[in-house]
Design goal:
Helix content is about 45%, strand content about 15%. It has 17 helices and 13 strands. It has helices spanning about 10-20, 35-40, 50-60, 70-75, 95-110, 130-140, 165-170, 180-190, 205-235, 240-245, 270-280, 290-310, 335-345, 365-370, 375-380, 385-390, 400-410, and strands at about 1-5, 25-30, 65, 80, 115-120, 150-155, 175-180, 200, 315-320, 350, 395, 415-420, 430-435. An 8-stranded mixed β-sheet has the order 3-2-1-4-5-6-7-8, with helices on both faces. The chain has a 5-stranded parallel β-sheet with strand order 10-9-11-12-13, sandwiched between helices. Helix 17 (about 400-410) links the parallel strand 11 and strand 12. It binds nicotinamide-adenine-dinucleotide (NAD).
Protein backbone atom coordinates (compact mmCIF):
# COMPACT_ATOMS: atom_id res chain seq x y z
CA UNK A 1 0.00 0.00 0.00
CA UNK A 2 1.03 3.63 -0.48
CA UNK A 3 0.71 5.22 2.94
CA UNK A 4 1.40 8.73 4.23
CA UNK A 5 1.99 9.15 7.97
CA UNK A 6 1.30 12.57 9.50
CA UNK A 7 3.32 13.25 12.66
CA UNK A 8 6.71 11.61 13.16
CA UNK A 9 6.74 11.37 16.95
CA UNK A 10 6.65 8.08 18.86
CA UNK A 11 3.52 6.72 17.21
CA UNK A 12 4.16 8.09 13.72
CA UNK A 13 7.85 7.15 13.50
CA UNK A 14 7.20 3.63 14.75
CA UNK A 15 4.18 3.19 12.45
CA UNK A 16 6.18 4.52 9.49
CA UNK A 17 9.23 2.32 10.18
CA UNK A 18 7.24 -0.83 10.85
CA UNK A 19 4.82 -0.39 7.94
CA UNK A 20 7.76 0.18 5.58
CA UNK A 21 9.40 -2.97 6.96
CA UNK A 22 6.14 -4.84 6.26
CA UNK A 23 6.49 -3.95 2.57
CA UNK A 24 4.35 -0.82 2.29
CA UNK A 25 5.64 2.39 0.73
CA UNK A 26 5.52 5.08 3.36
CA UNK A 27 5.92 8.85 3.22
CA UNK A 28 6.25 10.50 6.62
CA UNK A 29 5.12 14.09 7.12
CA UNK A 30 6.03 16.42 9.94
CA UNK A 31 5.98 20.18 10.42
CA UNK A 32 9.33 19.82 12.14
CA UNK A 33 12.02 19.78 9.39
CA UNK A 34 14.58 18.22 11.72
CA UNK A 35 12.46 15.09 12.09
CA UNK A 36 12.01 14.95 8.33
CA UNK A 37 15.77 15.29 7.79
CA UNK A 38 16.41 12.58 10.35
CA UNK A 39 14.23 10.08 8.50
CA UNK A 40 15.61 10.98 5.09
CA UNK A 41 19.09 10.53 6.52
CA UNK A 42 18.09 7.01 7.57
CA UNK A 43 17.88 7.86 11.27
CA UNK A 44 15.04 7.62 13.73
CA UNK A 45 13.71 10.93 15.10
CA UNK A 46 13.00 9.23 18.45
CA UNK A 47 14.96 7.06 20.87
CA UNK A 48 13.38 3.59 20.98
CA UNK A 49 14.83 0.09 20.86
CA UNK A 50 14.95 -1.44 17.35
CA UNK A 51 13.55 1.59 15.50
CA UNK A 52 16.89 2.84 14.07
CA UNK A 53 17.50 -0.32 12.04
CA UNK A 54 13.95 -0.32 10.67
CA UNK A 55 14.15 3.28 9.52
CA UNK A 56 17.63 2.87 8.06
CA UNK A 57 16.51 -0.20 6.11
CA UNK A 58 13.24 1.43 4.97
CA UNK A 59 15.09 4.46 3.58
CA UNK A 60 17.84 2.34 2.01
CA UNK A 61 15.29 0.14 0.22
CA UNK A 62 13.37 3.19 -1.01
CA UNK A 63 10.24 2.28 0.91
CA UNK A 64 10.43 5.11 3.44
CA UNK A 65 10.89 8.83 2.94
CA UNK A 66 9.76 11.97 4.72
CA UNK A 67 8.68 15.48 3.79
CA UNK A 68 7.25 18.68 5.23
CA UNK A 69 5.05 18.93 2.13
CA UNK A 70 1.65 17.49 3.01
CA UNK A 71 0.47 17.85 -0.60
CA UNK A 72 3.30 15.69 -1.95
CA UNK A 73 2.53 13.01 0.64
CA UNK A 74 -1.22 12.94 -0.01
CA UNK A 75 -0.86 12.95 -3.81
CA UNK A 76 1.48 9.96 -3.58
CA UNK A 77 -0.55 7.83 -1.20
CA UNK A 78 -3.99 6.20 -0.97
CA UNK A 79 -4.16 6.18 2.81
CA UNK A 80 -3.09 8.88 5.30
CA UNK A 81 -2.46 7.96 8.93
CA UNK A 82 -2.77 10.87 11.34
CA UNK A 83 -0.43 10.37 14.32
CA UNK A 84 0.08 13.95 15.49
CA UNK A 85 0.08 14.88 19.17
CA UNK A 86 -3.05 15.53 21.23
CA UNK A 87 -1.64 17.12 24.39
CA UNK A 88 -3.55 18.42 27.42
CA UNK A 89 -4.81 22.00 27.52
CA UNK A 90 -4.33 23.87 30.82
CA UNK A 91 -7.96 23.04 31.78
CA UNK A 92 -7.36 19.31 31.20
CA UNK A 93 -9.31 19.17 27.95
CA UNK A 94 -7.72 17.57 24.94
CA UNK A 95 -5.96 19.86 22.47
CA UNK A 96 -7.18 18.60 19.11
CA UNK A 97 -5.76 21.56 17.18
CA UNK A 98 -2.84 19.57 15.71
CA UNK A 99 -5.16 16.86 14.42
CA UNK A 100 -7.46 19.50 12.98
CA UNK A 101 -4.50 21.15 11.20
CA UNK A 102 -3.26 17.84 9.82
CA UNK A 103 -6.78 17.07 8.51
CA UNK A 104 -7.00 20.53 6.96
CA UNK A 105 -3.67 19.92 5.19
CA UNK A 106 -4.84 16.52 3.94
CA UNK A 107 -8.16 18.02 2.83
CA UNK A 108 -6.44 20.88 1.01
CA UNK A 109 -4.19 18.44 -0.84
CA UNK A 110 -7.17 16.30 -1.83
CA UNK A 111 -8.48 19.17 -3.97
CA UNK A 112 -5.60 18.36 -6.32
CA UNK A 113 -6.16 14.61 -6.26
CA UNK A 114 -8.77 12.75 -8.28
CA UNK A 115 -8.70 9.25 -6.78
CA UNK A 116 -10.42 8.20 -3.53
CA UNK A 117 -8.50 8.70 -0.30
CA UNK A 118 -8.77 7.08 3.12
CA UNK A 119 -7.87 9.06 6.24
CA UNK A 120 -7.08 6.93 9.28
CA UNK A 121 -6.87 8.82 12.57
CA UNK A 122 -4.47 7.19 15.07
CA UNK A 123 -4.09 10.05 17.57
CA UNK A 124 -5.96 9.58 20.83
CA UNK A 125 -9.25 11.49 20.64
CA UNK A 126 -12.31 11.81 22.86
CA UNK A 127 -15.34 9.95 21.49
CA UNK A 128 -17.23 11.98 18.92
CA UNK A 129 -14.23 14.12 17.87
CA UNK A 130 -13.75 12.39 14.53
CA UNK A 131 -17.44 12.67 13.64
CA UNK A 132 -18.07 16.15 14.98
CA UNK A 133 -14.78 17.89 14.20
CA UNK A 134 -12.49 16.03 11.83
CA UNK A 135 -14.88 14.74 9.19
CA UNK A 136 -16.45 18.21 8.72
CA UNK A 137 -12.93 19.69 8.58
CA UNK A 138 -11.88 17.19 5.93
CA UNK A 139 -15.06 17.86 3.97
CA UNK A 140 -14.76 21.64 3.93
CA UNK A 141 -11.06 21.68 3.09
CA UNK A 142 -11.24 18.95 0.42
CA UNK A 143 -14.54 19.91 -1.17
CA UNK A 144 -15.45 16.20 -1.01
CA UNK A 145 -18.34 14.59 0.83
CA UNK A 146 -17.55 11.92 3.39
CA UNK A 147 -18.23 8.70 1.46
CA UNK A 148 -16.64 6.71 -1.36
CA UNK A 149 -14.27 9.56 -2.35
CA UNK A 150 -13.30 10.42 1.23
CA UNK A 151 -13.17 7.56 3.72
CA UNK A 152 -12.41 8.05 7.41
CA UNK A 153 -11.50 5.41 10.00
CA UNK A 154 -10.23 5.58 13.56
CA UNK A 155 -7.49 3.15 14.53
CA UNK A 156 -6.09 3.69 18.04
CA UNK A 157 -2.48 2.79 18.82
CA UNK A 158 -1.66 0.65 21.86
CA UNK A 159 2.14 0.75 21.81
CA UNK A 160 4.12 1.67 24.90
CA UNK A 161 7.22 3.81 24.76
CA UNK A 162 10.30 1.73 25.50
CA UNK A 163 8.91 -1.34 23.73
CA UNK A 164 7.06 0.37 20.90
CA UNK A 165 8.44 -1.68 17.98
CA UNK A 166 7.78 -4.95 19.82
CA UNK A 167 4.30 -3.69 20.71
CA UNK A 168 3.62 -2.71 17.09
CA UNK A 169 4.34 -6.27 15.97
CA UNK A 170 2.58 -7.87 18.95
CA UNK A 171 -0.37 -5.60 19.74
CA UNK A 172 -2.91 -6.77 22.31
CA UNK A 173 -5.58 -6.09 19.69
CA UNK A 174 -6.14 -4.17 16.48
CA UNK A 175 -9.20 -1.95 16.84
CA UNK A 176 -10.66 -0.41 13.72
CA UNK A 177 -13.42 2.15 14.01
CA UNK A 178 -14.82 2.15 10.51
CA UNK A 179 -17.24 4.31 8.59
CA UNK A 180 -17.67 1.58 6.01
CA UNK A 181 -16.76 -2.12 5.75
CA UNK A 182 -14.47 -1.71 2.73
CA UNK A 183 -12.45 1.03 4.45
CA UNK A 184 -12.21 -1.09 7.60
CA UNK A 185 -10.89 -3.93 5.45
CA UNK A 186 -8.23 -1.64 3.97
CA UNK A 187 -7.03 -0.68 7.47
CA UNK A 188 -6.96 -4.36 8.48
CA UNK A 189 -4.88 -5.17 5.36
CA UNK A 190 -2.23 -2.71 6.51
CA UNK A 191 -1.59 -5.05 9.43
CA UNK A 192 -1.61 -8.31 7.49
CA UNK A 193 0.74 -10.78 9.15
CA UNK A 194 0.35 -9.44 12.70
CA UNK A 195 -1.05 -11.95 15.14
CA UNK A 196 -3.70 -10.10 17.08
CA UNK A 197 -7.48 -10.14 17.32
CA UNK A 198 -8.94 -7.61 14.89
CA UNK A 199 -12.03 -5.79 16.12
CA UNK A 200 -14.06 -3.77 13.64
CA UNK A 201 -16.45 -1.38 15.31
CA UNK A 202 -17.85 2.15 15.13
CA UNK A 203 -15.52 5.16 15.15
CA UNK A 204 -16.90 6.40 18.50
CA UNK A 205 -16.42 3.03 20.17
CA UNK A 206 -12.83 2.82 18.92
CA UNK A 207 -12.14 6.34 20.22
CA UNK A 208 -13.53 5.42 23.65
CA UNK A 209 -11.69 2.08 23.85
CA UNK A 210 -8.35 3.89 23.96
CA UNK A 211 -9.42 6.02 26.94
CA UNK A 212 -10.83 3.04 28.79
CA UNK A 213 -7.54 1.18 28.31
CA UNK A 214 -5.41 4.05 29.54
CA UNK A 215 -7.70 4.91 32.47
CA UNK A 216 -7.66 1.26 33.53
CA UNK A 217 -3.89 0.97 33.24
CA UNK A 218 -3.48 4.09 35.36
CA UNK A 219 -6.00 2.73 37.87
CA UNK A 220 -4.07 -0.55 38.08
CA UNK A 221 -0.81 1.24 38.85
CA UNK A 222 -2.34 3.40 41.57
CA UNK A 223 -4.34 0.50 43.02
CA UNK A 224 -1.22 -1.67 43.23
CA UNK A 225 0.76 1.21 44.76
CA UNK A 226 -1.84 1.86 47.46
CA UNK A 227 -2.00 -1.87 48.27
CA UNK A 228 1.80 -1.91 48.40
CA UNK A 229 1.89 1.02 50.83
CA UNK A 230 -0.56 -0.71 53.19
CA UNK A 231 1.31 -4.02 52.87
CA UNK A 232 4.62 -2.40 53.79
CA UNK A 233 3.17 -0.90 56.96
CA UNK A 234 1.51 -4.22 57.80
CA UNK A 235 4.82 -6.12 57.30
CA UNK A 236 3.43 -8.05 54.37
CA UNK A 237 5.41 -8.59 51.16
CA UNK A 238 3.38 -6.62 48.60
CA UNK A 239 4.97 -8.37 45.64
CA UNK A 240 4.07 -11.77 46.99
CA UNK A 241 0.52 -10.56 47.67
CA UNK A 242 0.10 -9.18 44.15
CA UNK A 243 1.59 -12.32 42.60
CA UNK A 244 -1.06 -14.36 44.37
CA UNK A 245 -3.68 -11.79 43.37
CA UNK A 246 -2.63 -12.06 39.71
CA UNK A 247 -2.86 -15.86 39.75
CA UNK A 248 -6.62 -15.54 39.99
CA UNK A 249 -7.81 -15.37 36.40
CA UNK A 250 -11.39 -16.11 37.32
CA UNK A 251 -12.30 -13.11 39.41
CA UNK A 252 -9.28 -10.77 39.49
CA UNK A 253 -7.63 -10.54 36.08
CA UNK A 254 -10.70 -11.45 34.12
CA UNK A 255 -13.85 -9.93 32.64
CA UNK A 256 -15.62 -10.42 35.98
CA UNK A 257 -17.06 -7.22 37.50
CA UNK A 258 -16.31 -5.15 34.40
CA UNK A 259 -19.75 -4.67 32.92
CA UNK A 260 -21.21 -1.19 33.52
CA UNK A 261 -24.38 -1.37 35.59
CA UNK A 262 -25.44 -0.88 39.18
CA UNK A 263 -23.64 -0.55 42.50
CA UNK A 264 -22.04 -3.39 44.43
CA UNK A 265 -23.19 -4.38 47.88
CA UNK A 266 -23.60 -7.41 50.08
CA UNK A 267 -22.00 -8.52 53.26
CA UNK A 268 -18.37 -8.37 52.13
CA UNK A 269 -17.22 -5.74 49.64
CA UNK A 270 -18.44 -2.59 51.47
CA UNK A 271 -17.40 -3.88 54.89
CA UNK A 272 -13.96 -5.01 53.77
CA UNK A 273 -13.24 -1.80 51.87
CA UNK A 274 -14.17 0.19 54.97
CA UNK A 275 -11.85 -1.92 57.12
CA UNK A 276 -8.95 -1.67 54.67
CA UNK A 277 -9.21 2.10 54.28
CA UNK A 278 -9.56 2.47 58.05
CA UNK A 279 -6.39 0.46 58.44
CA UNK A 280 -4.65 2.75 55.93
CA UNK A 281 -5.74 5.78 57.97
CA UNK A 282 -4.39 4.18 61.15
CA UNK A 283 -1.06 3.84 59.32
CA UNK A 284 -1.31 7.56 58.39
CA UNK A 285 -1.42 6.54 54.73
CA UNK A 286 -3.31 8.31 51.99
CA UNK A 287 -5.23 5.85 49.83
CA UNK A 288 -7.34 8.07 47.58
CA UNK A 289 -8.15 5.34 45.05
CA UNK A 290 -9.38 2.85 47.63
CA UNK A 291 -11.11 5.66 49.50
CA UNK A 292 -13.01 6.78 46.41
CA UNK A 293 -14.55 3.38 45.69
CA UNK A 294 -17.36 3.52 48.24
CA UNK A 295 -18.09 7.13 47.32
CA UNK A 296 -18.36 6.12 43.66
CA UNK A 297 -20.65 3.27 44.63
CA UNK A 298 -22.91 5.61 46.60
CA UNK A 299 -23.03 7.90 43.59
CA UNK A 300 -24.22 5.03 41.41
CA UNK A 301 -27.08 4.36 43.85
CA UNK A 302 -28.09 8.04 43.77
CA UNK A 303 -27.94 7.95 39.98
CA UNK A 304 -30.25 4.91 40.01
CA UNK A 305 -32.73 6.88 42.12
CA UNK A 306 -32.49 9.87 39.78
CA UNK A 307 -33.11 7.66 36.76
CA UNK A 308 -36.10 5.96 38.41
CA UNK A 309 -37.80 9.20 39.44
CA UNK A 310 -36.80 11.01 36.25
CA UNK A 311 -39.75 9.51 34.39
CA UNK A 312 -42.17 11.50 36.56
CA UNK A 313 -44.12 8.37 37.65
CA UNK A 314 -45.10 7.55 41.22
CA UNK A 315 -45.54 3.76 41.22
CA UNK A 316 -42.21 1.93 40.97
CA UNK A 317 -41.81 -1.83 40.97
CA UNK A 318 -38.51 -3.61 41.61
CA UNK A 319 -37.61 -6.97 40.13
CA UNK A 320 -35.06 -8.04 42.72
CA UNK A 321 -34.09 -6.60 46.08
CA UNK A 322 -31.28 -8.76 47.48
CA UNK A 323 -27.71 -7.69 46.69
CA UNK A 324 -27.50 -10.18 43.84
CA UNK A 325 -29.73 -12.69 42.06
CA UNK A 326 -30.47 -16.08 43.62
CA UNK A 327 -29.52 -14.84 47.08
CA UNK A 328 -31.67 -13.79 50.02
CA UNK A 329 -28.90 -11.60 51.44
CA UNK A 330 -30.20 -8.07 51.87
CA UNK A 331 -27.26 -6.74 53.87
CA UNK A 332 -25.98 -3.56 52.24
CA UNK A 333 -27.96 -4.33 49.11
CA UNK A 334 -27.78 -1.23 46.88
CA UNK A 335 -31.34 -2.03 45.80
CA UNK A 336 -32.48 -1.75 49.41
CA UNK A 337 -30.71 1.62 49.65
CA UNK A 338 -32.46 2.75 46.48
CA UNK A 339 -35.84 1.52 47.69
CA UNK A 340 -35.41 3.27 51.04
CA UNK A 341 -34.64 6.56 49.30
CA UNK A 342 -37.67 6.24 47.05
CA UNK A 343 -39.93 5.43 50.02
CA UNK A 344 -38.55 8.46 51.84
CA UNK A 345 -39.46 10.62 48.87
CA UNK A 346 -43.03 9.31 48.93
CA UNK A 347 -42.95 6.91 45.99
CA UNK A 348 -45.19 3.84 45.99
CA UNK A 349 -42.72 0.96 45.82
CA UNK A 350 -43.47 -2.71 45.27
CA UNK A 351 -40.92 -5.51 45.10
CA UNK A 352 -40.89 -8.95 43.57
CA UNK A 353 -37.97 -11.10 44.64
CA UNK A 354 -38.69 -14.81 44.84
CA UNK A 355 -35.62 -15.40 47.01
CA UNK A 356 -36.70 -12.90 49.62
CA UNK A 357 -39.77 -13.45 51.70
CA UNK A 358 -40.12 -12.80 55.40
CA UNK A 359 -41.12 -16.41 55.96
CA UNK A 360 -37.95 -17.69 54.36
CA UNK A 361 -35.52 -15.17 55.82
CA UNK A 362 -33.45 -16.48 58.68
CA UNK A 363 -30.54 -15.41 60.89
CA UNK A 364 -28.50 -12.39 59.87
CA UNK A 365 -30.80 -11.51 57.01
CA UNK A 366 -33.90 -11.51 59.17
CA UNK A 367 -32.14 -9.26 61.70
CA UNK A 368 -30.98 -6.94 58.91
CA UNK A 369 -34.53 -6.61 57.60
CA UNK A 370 -35.91 -6.02 61.09
CA UNK A 371 -33.41 -3.20 61.65
CA UNK A 372 -33.16 -1.62 58.22
CA UNK A 373 -36.39 -2.29 56.41
CA UNK A 374 -39.03 -3.30 58.96
CA UNK A 375 -41.83 -2.51 56.53
CA UNK A 376 -40.29 -4.82 53.92
CA UNK A 377 -43.12 -7.32 54.03
CA UNK A 378 -45.66 -4.70 53.01
CA UNK A 379 -43.63 -3.96 49.85
CA UNK A 380 -43.26 -7.54 48.71
CA UNK A 381 -45.68 -8.98 46.20
CA UNK A 382 -46.05 -12.68 45.49
CA UNK A 383 -45.92 -12.71 41.72
CA UNK A 384 -44.46 -10.87 38.77
CA UNK A 385 -47.99 -10.30 37.47
CA UNK A 386 -48.91 -8.48 40.68
CA UNK A 387 -45.79 -6.31 40.38
CA UNK A 388 -46.52 -5.49 36.74
CA UNK A 389 -50.10 -4.51 37.57
CA UNK A 390 -48.97 -2.20 40.40
CA UNK A 391 -46.11 -0.39 38.60
CA UNK A 392 -45.67 2.40 36.10
CA UNK A 393 -41.89 1.96 36.15
CA UNK A 394 -40.29 -1.47 36.40
CA UNK A 395 -36.76 -1.41 37.81
CA UNK A 396 -34.72 -4.48 36.90
CA UNK A 397 -32.31 -4.89 39.79
CA UNK A 398 -31.23 -8.42 38.92
CA UNK A 399 -30.22 -10.03 35.64
CA UNK A 400 -32.71 -12.87 36.00
CA UNK A 401 -35.33 -14.79 34.11
CA UNK A 402 -37.95 -12.73 35.96
CA UNK A 403 -36.37 -9.48 34.76
CA UNK A 404 -36.47 -10.76 31.19
CA UNK A 405 -40.07 -11.93 31.56
CA UNK A 406 -41.04 -8.51 32.95
CA UNK A 407 -39.39 -6.76 30.00
CA UNK A 408 -41.20 -8.95 27.50
CA UNK A 409 -44.55 -8.53 29.24
CA UNK A 410 -44.25 -4.76 29.81
CA UNK A 411 -47.25 -2.77 28.61
CA UNK A 412 -46.50 -0.09 25.99
CA UNK A 413 -46.84 2.73 28.53
CA UNK A 414 -44.76 0.91 31.15
CA UNK A 415 -41.11 1.98 31.48
CA UNK A 416 -38.45 -0.66 32.05
CA UNK A 417 -35.31 0.66 33.76
CA UNK A 418 -32.60 -1.99 33.53
CA UNK A 419 -29.95 -1.34 36.18
CA UNK A 420 -27.79 -4.36 35.45
CA UNK A 421 -28.06 -5.11 31.74
CA UNK A 422 -29.77 -8.50 31.93
CA UNK A 423 -32.39 -7.48 29.36
CA UNK A 424 -30.18 -5.48 26.98
CA UNK A 425 -30.96 -7.84 24.12
CA UNK A 426 -34.69 -7.19 24.60
CA UNK A 427 -34.24 -3.43 24.26
CA UNK A 428 -36.94 -3.01 21.63
CA UNK A 429 -39.63 -4.41 23.91
CA UNK A 430 -41.74 -1.62 25.50
CA UNK A 431 -40.01 1.53 26.76
CA UNK A 432 -36.61 0.15 27.77
CA UNK A 433 -34.02 2.42 29.40
CA UNK A 434 -30.55 1.18 30.35
CA UNK A 435 -28.72 2.40 33.45
CA UNK A 436 -25.59 3.40 31.51
CA UNK A 437 -26.06 2.25 27.92
N1 LIG B 1 3.51 8.07 22.88
C1 LIG B 1 2.82 6.97 23.08
O1 LIG B 1 3.27 6.01 23.71
C2 LIG B 1 1.44 6.83 22.52
C3 LIG B 1 0.83 5.58 22.50
C4 LIG B 1 -0.43 5.45 21.94
C5 LIG B 1 -1.09 6.58 21.47
N2 LIG B 1 -0.49 7.79 21.53
C6 LIG B 1 -1.20 8.94 20.97
O2 LIG B 1 -0.71 9.14 19.66
C7 LIG B 1 -0.65 10.53 19.35
C8 LIG B 1 0.77 10.92 19.02
O3 LIG B 1 1.57 10.73 20.16
P1 LIG B 1 3.15 10.85 20.10
O4 LIG B 1 3.64 10.50 21.46
O5 LIG B 1 3.65 10.10 18.91
O6 LIG B 1 3.28 12.43 19.85
P2 LIG B 1 4.64 13.27 19.63
O7 LIG B 1 4.41 14.57 20.35
O8 LIG B 1 5.83 12.45 19.96
O9 LIG B 1 4.66 13.53 18.08
C9 LIG B 1 3.72 14.29 17.40
C10 LIG B 1 4.36 14.79 16.11
O10 LIG B 1 3.36 15.42 15.34
C11 LIG B 1 3.98 16.51 14.64
N3 LIG B 1 2.93 17.39 14.14
C12 LIG B 1 2.15 18.29 14.80
N4 LIG B 1 1.28 18.88 13.95
C13 LIG B 1 1.50 18.34 12.73
C14 LIG B 1 0.92 18.53 11.46
N5 LIG B 1 -0.06 19.41 11.26
N6 LIG B 1 1.39 17.82 10.41
C15 LIG B 1 2.39 16.94 10.59
N7 LIG B 1 2.98 16.71 11.78
C16 LIG B 1 2.54 17.41 12.83
C17 LIG B 1 4.89 17.11 15.69
O11 LIG B 1 5.88 17.94 15.12
C18 LIG B 1 5.47 15.84 16.33
O12 LIG B 1 6.64 15.41 15.68
C19 LIG B 1 -1.24 11.24 20.57
O13 LIG B 1 -2.61 11.43 20.37
C20 LIG B 1 -1.00 10.25 21.68
O14 LIG B 1 -1.93 10.44 22.74
C21 LIG B 1 0.77 7.94 22.03
Amino acid sequence: MQISVFGLGYVGAVSAGCLAASGHTVIGVDINPQKVDCINGGQAPIIEPEIDALIEEGVRKGRLSATTDAGHAVLNSDVSLVCVGTPSLPNGNLDSSHVESACAEIGGALRRKVTPHLVVIRSTLLPGTTDALLIPRLETTSGRRHGPELGVCYNPEFLREGSSVKDFYNPPKIVIGQDDAANGRTVAEMYTGLEAPVVRTSIRTAEMVKYVDNAFHALKVSFANEIGNICKQASVDSHEVMSIFCMDRKLNLSPAYLKPGFAFGGSCLPKDLRALTYQARRFDLESPVLGAILASNGHQIRLGVERAIGFGKKRIGFVGMSFKPASDDLRESPLVAMIETLLGKGYAVRVFDPYVSMNRLVGANRKYVAEHLPHLSSLLVDSLEELMAASEVLVLGHASEHARAATLAARPEQIVLDLVGGARDLRTAGRYVGMSW
